[in-house]
Amino acid sequence: MRFEWVVFLVALGFSLVVGALQNSYLFWQRVLYVPLEMTVWVFFFVGVVSFFVSPLVLFASFYLIGRKIDFSSGFQSVIVPLFLGNWAGHLIAYFSFRLWYSSLYAGQYFWEPYFFSEIVWVVVSYALSLEFFVGLSALAIAHIVKRR
Q1: pTM surpassing 0.85?
Q2: Which residues lie below 8 Å from residue 29, measured CB to CB, with a gap of 6+?
Q3: Considering 34, 56, 105, 112, which has the largest number of Cβ atoms within 10 A of its Cβ?
């Protein structure tokens, strides 16, 4: 099985950006001391951008990548890097913000009672993210169009 590094790196990059945007609310509130009303508007804008613009750009980029990839070696050579890239990108963004936040407050975050249940939920929920399904559908459509 070949490992498509281009698919992995693009998935990792997109999920890092989306994950960083989604998890940066602590930065806005605790470090920049932005008022709550302003933070709500900023994250409304981030939500709209990540809901509309991100899937379109992601679909277009994976469609263009899918036109150049040879699927004759098997579809697993594309699904596994796509899955791992999305999962790793979201987890890196999530845990980097959480570690950074806990370092500001002397590690208090790691001693909270819900920390381990939150880790399990984050790992499972980020495994099947929106970026994975958008990228998979774009690669599949590119493969179908290419075979015609």
Answers
A1: no
A2: 36, 39
A3: 34
